């Protein structure tokens, strides 16, 4: 019987099959991505491929996945000590390696400088010319310059002119500039690593004696840990690990809801069949078994197809993430019989089957409980659609949505800064509205039809009464539209509002009217800042990023520090919201810290700097900040530690003009001074946009990827549900035709009803979104002070397009079955049960 009913009602299950196939495919593909990320192949060594052993500073408790790219552990920041250098050199010789910012003018942003003696260990060989013999000579890749050229090189120590003494063939894993050993030591005092030339066991013994657990000896494929690409790959894979579960959880939740509700609706539509089965003697158990067998047949075949599709499409998903700069270019997913492939596929298949079974369980149990005497009466009357279980779930969701809104707005506004958690929070009000939709059908129908109460003709009255007396059917067809518009509106509005609020917060925090920003470089050289500060009437403050390490209850906390030139520069350029203390109290022995650190003005802050020196600073003031933007401001005497912590460059420089200074003259002089230095002169508004560009890119990729997947499922659900609903109403078409309605009037009736159902779904979506945006606006006001006053035009256009497509799909799903039904004779329509 299960086979026969599927054969007779295949149209009703078509959308469910498509939704299941796509749902299982995305679960399989994302599962393959996650297992591939956690079981990566060994990457080959690059810079030290020909080195016998590499000695590097090491912290066994350091997990780079918990820190931003470029942040170093304390041993890595300090670099190789002189004691370790002497002991390793005594085993048979060493070659010192340094890595620092060195970029040819107009060259790649990630270009790096090294001493020439380490070049040979990475497979570099002179293509022409010779090795650098003086401190004003360099060797570069042949695609960057030619031997004998005079080139400009940008470094943290300033802008210098060098002669190209030779060139090497380019490699795919770095863009390097090679200096003499003394010149490299001048530009970068920190030693990154040592190439140990002595016997391995003697080297290991020397390292244990000199550094203990603060250094390690790398051999074999472990030498890849010394490559810069290892950190970049890890950052990219961490982004993948962050993004994929969020996509999977949000899209998976939507898929479960769509598939389960579609199965349940299909069962509800078959009450007439079930009533007949109960009347002729079918037991409740037999009814439930038949429906479960249908679900097993549909879900088994759809899940199998989805599993194959997910296997084939996993690399396509990986390629999409690579194209969005989320995953590294070498990331590949290879089909095999390994557990990392079979486990996600099996899990995806079982998920599809379980989702289908869960979707029919409640409806099948309810249908099986109908007594034979009541079966036909139950089949002929459409109830409210609100079962006790659904009402309980809806009330629970409503309480949860209200509580979640209050918690975000008042108790934990920082949650909106976490895309992973906040994307799931946005689902709660939208799904709750979908669950409670049957209760809203009556009131919303009266509200939306009120403007049409004086319209002549029977269509408006028929539409209103048809929708009000079929609340279950109306709620089932409005739910996919509600999900589509609500989730699209919530996700895209939240993304746009958060990005705009960050921009506004930065604008409010910066007092200066102008700034310098990197121009194709990772930062601005302090020498360039000094050059600009010598212009008459121009004041410059360029915080240099460093790292401070704070011991807290046995743990070493790593925090950002910004070195500034005294409190005057800080007050002149930055509009910090001081919570305790005063910026006037800042001097060479004090600091200003964010309030999220839990410190108080007047107390002492004991810390280790990146070069290993210990310091104790008085906290002059605390200021309001959010996580991710909570750096301490340090006095100028710590500027030298930046070369150990990061690259010694300023990420931005703030510029103000003295009273009476001619802006046109000053800005012209500034532009001339920074030309060719890797810095560009911009306004405060342009600075805010450039500062948030990277963060906004990652956030927008997450939210838009989720939105695309969610909307795809919902579009399928809209079309499928309307097709199912309208196909089942051929008897209604017959009644209208027998009472004298023309085919045009019948089509107009169904179109009007479809538009009303769409309007109900959009209205519910707007209410759910309003709840989400209320919490978001309150949180952004608390975090940044000025939430955005309007939604960007691109978001409005996207939401409008989504709503229009949803309406169009609803009309297609309504009109096509009606046109097909009108082709049949009226008597045939009246006698058709299925």
Quick summary of this structure?
This protein has 834 residues and is an alpha+beta fold.
Helix-strand blueprint:
Layout: H1 2-8, H2 10-38, E1 53-57, H3 74-78, H4 82-89, E2 94-97, E3 100-104, E4 112-115, E5 126-129, E6 137-141, E7 150-155, E8 158-168, E9 176-179, H5 181-187, E10 193-196, H6 200-211, E11 215-218, H7 228-269, H8 271-279, H9 284-323, H10 339-368, H11 372-380, H12 388-411, H13 419-435, H14 437-449, H15 459-468, H16 471-509, E12 514-518, H17 526-533, E13 538-541, E14 544-552, E15 555-563, H18 566-573, E16 578-581, E17 590-594, E18 604-609, E19 614-623, E20 632-634, H19 642-645, E21 653-657, H20 663-674, E22 679-683, H21 684-691, H22 693-727, H23 730-738, H24 743-784, H25 793-822, H26 826-831
Parallel strand pairs: 4-9, 6-8, 15-20, 17-19
Antiparallel strand pairs: 1-10, 1-11, 2-10, 3-4, 3-7, 5-8, 7-8, 12-21, 12-22, 13-21, 14-15, 14-18, 16-19, 18-19
Which strand-content bin applies to the residues?
Answer: 5-15%
- The mean pLDDT is 81
Please state the overall shape, judged from the principal axes of the Cα atoms: elongated
Radius of gyration: 33 Å
Report the span from N to C terminus.
15 Å
Q: Main beta sheet: strand number and arrangement?
A: 7 strands, mixed
Ranges where pLDDT stays below 50 over 5 or more residues in a row are none
Q: What structural category do the secondary elements indicate?
A: alpha+beta
Jot down its keywords:
single chain, 834 residues, alpha+beta, seven-stranded mixed β-sheet, 26 helices
Written account of the structure:
The protein is an alpha+beta fold and 834 residues long. The protein folds into four domains: 1-42 and 232-381, no CATH class; 53-231, no CATH class; 405-504 and 691-834, no CATH class; 508-690, no CATH class. The strands form four sheets. Strands 3, 4, 5, 6, 7, 8 and 9 form a seven-stranded mixed beta sheet that branches. Strands 14, 15, 16, 17, 18, 19 and 20 form a seven-stranded mixed beta sheet that branches. Strand 7 (150-155) and strand 8 form a beta hairpin. Helix 4 (82-89) runs antiparallel to helix 6 and helix 16 runs parallel beside helix 24. The longest helix is centred in the N-terminal third of the chain and has 42 residues, at 228-269. The protein is elongated and about 100 Å long. The two termini are 15 Å apart. The mean pLDDT is 81.
């Amino acid at each position: 019987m299960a086979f026969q009913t599927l054969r007779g009602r295949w149209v009703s299950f078509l959308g469910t099959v498509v939704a299941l196939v796509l749902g299982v495919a995305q679960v399989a593909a994302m599962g393959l991505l996650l297992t591939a990320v956690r079981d990566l192949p060994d990457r080959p060594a690059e810079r030290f491929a020909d080195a016998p052993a590499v000695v590097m500073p090491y912290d066994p408790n350091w997990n780079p996945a918990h820190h931003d790219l470029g942040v170093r552990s304390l041993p890595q920041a300090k670099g190789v000590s002189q004691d370790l250098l002497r002991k390793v050199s005594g085993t048979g010789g060493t070659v010192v390696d340094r890595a620092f910012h060195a970029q040819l003018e107009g060259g790649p942003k990630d270009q790096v400088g090294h001493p020439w003696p380490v070049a040979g260990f990475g497979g570099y060989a002179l293509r022409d010319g010779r090795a650098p013999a003086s401190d004003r000579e360099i060797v570069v890749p042949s695609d960057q310059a030619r031997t004998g050229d005079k080139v400009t090189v940008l470094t943290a120590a300033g802008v210098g002119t060098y002669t190209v003494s030779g060139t090497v063939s380019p490699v795919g894993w770095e863009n390097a500039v090679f200096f003499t050993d003394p010149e490299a030591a001048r530009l970068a005092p920190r030693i990154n690593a040592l190439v140990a030339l002595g016997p391995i066991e003697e080297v290991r013994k020397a390292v244990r004696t000199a550094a203990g657990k603060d250094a390690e000896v790398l051999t074999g494929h472990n030498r890849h840990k010394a490559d810069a690409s290892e950190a970049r790959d890890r950052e990219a894979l961490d982004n993948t690990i962050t993004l994929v579960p969020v996509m999977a959880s949000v899209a998976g939740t939507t898929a479960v809801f769509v598939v389960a509700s579609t199965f349940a609706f299909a069962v509800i539509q078959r009450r007439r069949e079930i009533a007949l089965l109960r009347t002729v003697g079918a037991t409740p158990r037999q009814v439930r078994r038949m429906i479960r067998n249908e679900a097993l047949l549909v879900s088994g075949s759809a899940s199998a197809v989805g599993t194959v599709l997910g296997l084939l499409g996993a690399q396509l998903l990986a390629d999409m993430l690579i194209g969005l700069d989320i995953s590294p270019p070498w990331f590949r997913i290879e089909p095999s019989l390994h557990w990392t492939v079979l486990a996600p596929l099996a899990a995806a298949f079982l998920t599809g089957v379980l989702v289908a079974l869960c979707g029919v369980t409640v409806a099948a149990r309810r249908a099986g409980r109908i007594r034979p005497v009541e079966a036909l009466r139950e089949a002929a009357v459409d109830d409210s659609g609100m079962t006790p279980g659904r009402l309980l779930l809806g009330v629970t969701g409503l309480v949860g949505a209200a509580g979640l809104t209050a918690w975000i707005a008042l108790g934990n506004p920082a949650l909106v800064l976490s895309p992973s958690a906040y994307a799931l929070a946005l689902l709660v009000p939208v799904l709750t509205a979908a669950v409670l939709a049957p209760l809203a059908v009556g009131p919303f129908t009266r509200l939306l039809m009120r403007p049409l109460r004086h319209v002549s003709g029977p269509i408006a009255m028929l539409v209103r009464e048809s929708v009000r007396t079929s609340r279950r059917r109306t709620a089932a067809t409005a739910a996919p539209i509600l999900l589509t518009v609500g989730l699209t509106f919530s996700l895209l509005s939240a993304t746009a509002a958060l990005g705009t609020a960050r921009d506004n917060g930065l604008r409010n925090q910066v007092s200066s009217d102008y700034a310098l920003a990197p121009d194709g470089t990772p930062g601005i050289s302090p020498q360039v800042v000094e050059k600009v500060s010598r212009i008459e009437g121009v004041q410059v403050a360029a915080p240099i990023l460093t790292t401070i390490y704070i011991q807290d209850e046995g743990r070493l906390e790593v925090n950002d520090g910004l070195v500034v030139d005294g409190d005057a520069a800080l007050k002149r350029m930055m509009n910090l919201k001081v919570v305790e203390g005063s910026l006037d109290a800042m001097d060479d022995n004090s600091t200003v810290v964010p309030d999220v650190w839990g410190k108080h003005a007047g107390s002492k802050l004991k810390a280790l700097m990146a070069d290993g020196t210990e310091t104790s600073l008085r906290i002059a003031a605390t200021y309001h900040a959010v996580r991710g933007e909570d750096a301490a401001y340090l006095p100028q005497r710590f500027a030298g530690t930046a070369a150990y912590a990061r690259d010694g460059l300023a990420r931005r420089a703030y510029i103000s003009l003295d009273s009476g200074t001619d802006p046109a003259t000053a800005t012209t002089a500034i532009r001339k001074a920074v030309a060719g230095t890797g810095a560009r002169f911009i306004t405060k508004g342009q600075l805010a946009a450039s500062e948030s560009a990277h963060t906004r890119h990652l956030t927008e990729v997450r939210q838009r990827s989720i939105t695309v997947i969610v909307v795809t499922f919902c579009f399928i659900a809209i079309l499928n549900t309307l097709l199912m609903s309208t196909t089942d109403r051929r008897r209604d078409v017959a009644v209208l035709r027998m009472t004298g309605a023309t085919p045009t009037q019948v089509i107009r009736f169904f179109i009007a009803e479809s538009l009303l159902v769409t309007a109900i779904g959009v209205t519910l979506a707007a209410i759910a979104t309003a709840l989400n945006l209320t919490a978001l606006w309150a949180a952004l006001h608390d975090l940044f002070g000025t939430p955005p006053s309007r939604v960007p035009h691109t978001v409005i256009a996207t939401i409008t397009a989504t709503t229009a497509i949803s309406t169009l799909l609803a009309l297609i799903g309504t009109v096509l079955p009606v046109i097909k039904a009108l082709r049949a004779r009226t008597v045939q329509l009246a006698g058709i049960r299925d």
